[in-house]
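Q: Given only this backbone (374 positions), what sequence would you predict?
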């Protein structure tokens, strides 16, 4: 195809344009250039089949407000997880606000490397829920309703953990989605436990009848702090009062691959979700007891590629370096959080000052396990 002005005057031929692009790729390697359109479409991952597999426990990277962005999801996908969540997104903002749609959800055809992708939504009515699903259903494998977030601001609007005290509203949302989409859309509900476990059993039974495909149970109450131990006995009690064919995921206090097996056996569940554990160590499902250096190089690479805000990358690196081996001393870690760090460039300068950080394409990139100090 040749290129013309509005007056049909030839600007340059396709051959000339191709040469221009090739020269720019060679001379300006960082420049974003137009790419040929692709006919590829995202292949769906059957997350429900994973959860119903009796021969394995599904390992799940849970949703983290702000932190489960594409850069972190892609990093986790290099290790042995099965399903990865987005951060919770407020459905009412997503469907009404262009900026929310741009900032809250990004993905690409290679994002998370064939793992299951679940979009978690903060929502309190079926209209907002269905409208959001309609926008996103082709770009993920399932949706989750967040009925486990303890943040007061969300609970005041009947979003998050407060929903477990509104079983009619919660079940109506599930029923509306399944009535419209049937098996086309897989839907999970993440809950916390009531003080009276039988209330939670009744809620789960109603969610199952409404058509929820599976339930994730955080073994703490709405007002229980994370410093208090997860109540695995409660999860087991609830699990044992539900149909065996109905998948249940346990969430809480999972910090290692060994914990996955222990929790699954304790609770008789089909899947185990980690949140704080995987934030500190994205490689934990691969059996690492510490964060390998390759995970740090990967998240730096993906953060630059996708444009993750530097403050989020800063937090990720602090969590990961604090759990690395050999762990940097407190003085080195403190410098990472210094007020002088004001951009991704500053973060990379910090890493280059203290460590041997390899770039994508460089020999040995994302292969080291121990921290390579200079």
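A: Predicted residues:
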């Amino acid at each position: 195809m040749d290129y013309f002005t509005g007056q049909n005057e030839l600007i340059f031929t396709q051959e000339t344009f191709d040469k221009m692009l090739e020269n720019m790729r060679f001379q300006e390697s960082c420049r974003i250039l137009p790419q040929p359109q692709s006919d590829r479409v995202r292949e769906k991952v059957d997350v429900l089949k994973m959860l119903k597999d009796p021969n394995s426990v599904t390992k799940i990277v849970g949703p983290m407000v702000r932190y489960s962005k594409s850069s972190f999801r892609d990093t986790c996908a290099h290790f042995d997880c099965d399903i990865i969540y987005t951060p919770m997104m407020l459905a009412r903002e997503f469907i009404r606000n262009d900026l929310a749609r741009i900032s809250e959800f990004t993905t690409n055809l290679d994002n998370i490397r064939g793992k299951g992708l679940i979009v978690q939504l903060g929502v309190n009515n079926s209209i907002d829920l269905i409208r959001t699903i309609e926008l996103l259903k082709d770009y993920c494998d399932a949706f989750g309703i967040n009925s486990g977030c303890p943040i007061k601001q969300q609970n005041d609007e009947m979003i998050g953990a407060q929903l477990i005290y509104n079983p009619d509203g919660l079940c109506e949302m599930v029923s509306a989605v399944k009535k419209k989409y049937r098996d086309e859309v897989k839907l999970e509900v993440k809950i916390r436990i009531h003080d009276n476990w039988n209330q939670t059993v009744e809620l789960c039974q109603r969610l199952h009848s409404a058509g929820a495909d599976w339930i994730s149970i955080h073994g703490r109450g709405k007002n229980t702090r994370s410093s208090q131990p997860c109540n695995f006995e409660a999860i087991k009690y609830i699990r044992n009062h539900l149909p065996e064919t109905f998948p249940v995921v346990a969430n809480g206090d999972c910090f290692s691959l060994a914990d996955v097996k222990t929790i699954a056996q304790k609770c008789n569940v089909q899947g185990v979700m980690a949140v704080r554990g995987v934030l500190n160590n994205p490689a934990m499902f691969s059996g690492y007891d510490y964060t390998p250096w390759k995970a740090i190089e990967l998240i730096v690479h993906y953060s630059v590629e996708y444009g993750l805000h530097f403050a989020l990358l800063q937090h990720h690196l602090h969590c990961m370096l604090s759990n690395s081996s050999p762990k940097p001393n407190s003085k080195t870690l403190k410098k990472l959080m210094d007020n002088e760090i004001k951009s991704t460039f500053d973060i990379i300068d910090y890493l280059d000052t203290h460590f041997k950080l390899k770039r994508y394409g460089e020999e040995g990139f994302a292969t080291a396990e121990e921290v390579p100090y200079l």
